[in-house]
């Protein structure tokens, strides 16, 4: 569904990602893992057009999308749940969701509100509350709900577990799995490597702007280097 | 009543109206969170276009004023494309530079009459006076013809302002207004949600310029004379201060700001030399204690809640 090859993005003279290749097959969950500063968020922002990559190809559903404006990429069916959630704090929960459907002109938006509320009942309870007054976990749910309102074929999640309590993290990962089972392909960026590898089909390990390892998620999880660097040593196991 | 309607008070009321319209223009540019200091430049373009059209080309005023606005808006789109890639303080400096460029161009062009400015612009008041006297009316129950025509000008300005307020309120509830609000709240989130931020930022910028241009055209036809100094740096700051004092959350904010800041120097006239000091102190106090401006969304919510409870009891 998404084929990235040779993608490079720089901030000024500093090259943050250096020619990476990633394949996201339709219907799968692909995890992109790596330490701080590895270039994970840069990769996500480059994919949706928020950053302009210098080189490489991004093929989404067979179409080259590198250099397209973000709103056009959203129209094609790729939505990003940004790192840190970026809730519109001054707008209500309902308004935040409405903004997610901004580009849509079809008549099924109402149906999708119901779908989101069914998935996240807490959002329905709080739909008139301002986005900024929600807790971290609720804001993350709202951010995911908002991205789903655009009816994406591919959902990009940038660190959905950031700053959340372990129980809430488990909830969020369950939701991600459900969304995937209902037919949405997912590209996930995570620092919570254990969880990310558990739900993913494929995994890519990013280190200082380069893909150093990739393969089926369970194989990546067994790799001694990954165990050492991200999973607390070989003894910890998975 | 006749004493209240003296020429001095009427003139101040007219200035309040024009400044309130300028307040709406800065509100519109600020509604996408862009700090533009170019509104005096757009006002200048509007004023000069309009004055040249009426004085030199003999166009009627009611056509020239909208055309002035359109000219300002057109220029804003041209400079908006490169300028709106900038944000925050950088955009402010770029647009400030733009205002200076306009001033220097106006100062050096022949058609704008350089530093001398354009004088002999037919004022709206005298135009209306002429129309009235052509109907053979010169006395109106104790009011002079001059008073009546200035009053009519005031009514026209009030209608323009009322229309603009109505327009802004409708805009806020529309799709476009939602996009503006989202961009103001979080530009990268808005972009990620699929809002064409460039388009909406440019639209807000051009709308602000259009209204500034119209205000410029109006002011040219109210004061008989315009010169490059009328639209210099201090004018820009003044327009921005309307929003700083009144608040830029709601359209009524900059209008209240314009009202207060236009009346204040007149009220303080008795304090003579201390006038500007008091003016400055007021603004510093405002920024320290109420940085969001006099009227914010919370203010409205607070009073609505209070009045709502009051009526129930």
From TrEMBL, chain A:
Q: Which SMART domains match?
A: AAA
Q: Could you give a GO molecular-function term held by this entry?
A: branched-chain amino acid transmembrane transporter activity
| One Pfam family it belongs to | ABC_tran
Q: Which UniProt keywords apply?
A: Amino-acid transport, ATP-binding, Nucleotide-binding, Transport
Q: Which SUPFAM superfamilies match?
A: P-loop containing nucleoside triphosphate hydrolases
**From which residue to which does any coiled coil extend?**
none
Where's the ABC transporter domain? 2-233
Which GO BP terms, alphabetically? L-amino acid transport
Under PANTHER family, the record lists: HIGH-AFFINITY BRANCHED-CHAIN AMINO ACID TRANSPORT ATP-BINDING PROTEIN LIVF
Q: Which family does it belong to?
A: Belongs to the ABC transporter superfamily.
Name the chain's protein: Branched-chain amino acid transport system ATP-binding protein
Q: Which organism is it from?
A: Desulfosporosinus hippei DSM 8344
Higher taxonomy = Bacteria, Bacillati, Bacillota, Clostridia, Eubacteriales
Automatic annotation (TrEMBL), chain B:
Query: Any idea where this protein resides?
Result: Cell membrane
- Respond yes or no to whether keyword Transmembrane is given for this record: yes
Q: What is this protein called?
A: Branched-chain amino acid transport system permease protein
Q: Which residues cross the membrane?
A: 12-30, 37-55, 61-81, 88-106, 148-169, 202-227, 239-264, 276-295
Keywords, alphabetical: Cell membrane, Membrane, Transmembrane, Transmembrane helix
MF GO annotations: branched-chain amino acid transmembrane transporter activity
Q: Which CDD domains match?
A: TM_PBP1_LivM_like
What InterPro entries is this protein classified in? ABC_transp_permease, LivM-like
What species does this protein belong to?
Answer: Desulfosporosinus hippei DSM 8344
């Amino acid at each position: 569904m998404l084929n990235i090859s040779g993608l490079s993005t720089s901030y000024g003279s500093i090259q943050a990602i250096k020619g990476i290749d990633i394949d996201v097959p339709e219907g799968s969950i692909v995890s992109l893992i790596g330490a701080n500063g590895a270039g994970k968020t840069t990769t996500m922002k480059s994919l949706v057009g928020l950053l302009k990559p210098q080189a490489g190809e991004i093929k989404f559903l067979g179409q080259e999308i590198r250099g397209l404006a973000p709103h056009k990429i959203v129209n094609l069916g790729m939505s990003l749940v940004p790192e840190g959630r970026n809730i519109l704090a001054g707008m209500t929960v309902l308004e935040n969701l409405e903004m997610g459907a901004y580009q849509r002109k079809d008549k099924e938006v109402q149906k999708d509100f119901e779908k989101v509320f069914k998935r996240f009942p807490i959002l329905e309870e709080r739909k008139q509350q301002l986005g900024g007054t929600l807790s971290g976990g609720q804001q993350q749910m709202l951010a995911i709900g908002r991205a789903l309102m655009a009816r994406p074929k591919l959902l990009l999640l940038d660190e959905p577990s950031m700053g959340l309590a372990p129980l809430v993290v488990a909830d969020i990962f369950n939701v991600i799995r459900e969304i995937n089972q209902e037919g949405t392909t997912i590209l996930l960026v995570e620092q919570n490597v254990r969880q990310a590898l558990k739900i993913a089909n494929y995994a890519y390990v990013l280190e200082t702007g380069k893909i150093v390892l990739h393969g089926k998620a369970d194989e990546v999880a067994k790799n001694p280097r990954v165990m050492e660097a991200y999973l607390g040593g070989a003894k910890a196991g998975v | 009543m006749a004493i209240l309607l003296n020429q001095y008070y009427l003139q101040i009321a007219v200035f309040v109206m024009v400044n309130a319209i300028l307040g709406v223009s800065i509100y519109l540019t600020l509604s996408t969170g862009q700090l533009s200091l170019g509104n005096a430049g757009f006002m200048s373009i509007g004023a000069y276009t309009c004055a040249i059209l009426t004085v030199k080309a003999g166009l009627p005023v009611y056509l020239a004023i909208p055309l002035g606005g359109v000219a300002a808006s057109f220029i804003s789109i041209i400079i908006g494309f490169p300028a709106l890639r900038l944000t925050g303080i950088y955009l402010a400096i770029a647009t400030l530079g733009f205002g200076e460029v306009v001033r220097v161009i106006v100062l050096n062009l022949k058609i704008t009459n350089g530093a001398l400015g354009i004088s002999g612009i037919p004022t709206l008041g005298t135009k209306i006076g002429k129309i009235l006297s052509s109907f053979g009316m010169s006395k109106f129950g104790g009011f002079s013809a001059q008073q009546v025509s200035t009053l009519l000008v005031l009514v026209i300005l009030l209608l323009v302002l009322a229309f603009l307020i109505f327009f802004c309120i409708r805009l806020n509830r529309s799709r476009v207004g939602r996009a503006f609000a989202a961009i103001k709240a979080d530009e990268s989130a808005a972009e990620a949600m699929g809002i064409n931020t460039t388009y909406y930022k440019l639209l807000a910028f051009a709308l602000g310029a259009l209204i500034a241009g119209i205000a410029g055209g109006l002011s040219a036809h109210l004061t008989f004379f315009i010169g490059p100094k009328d639209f210099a740096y201090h004018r820009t700051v003044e327009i921005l201060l309307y929003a700083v004092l009144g608040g830029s959350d709601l359209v009524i904010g900059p209008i209240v700001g314009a009202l207060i800041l236009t009346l204040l120097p007149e009220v303080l006239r008795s304090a003579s030399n201390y006038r500007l000091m008091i003016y400055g102190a007021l603004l510093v106090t405002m920024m320290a204690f109420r940085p969001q401006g006099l009227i914010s969304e919370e203010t409205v919510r607070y009073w609505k809640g209070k009045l709502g409870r009051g009526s129930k009891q």
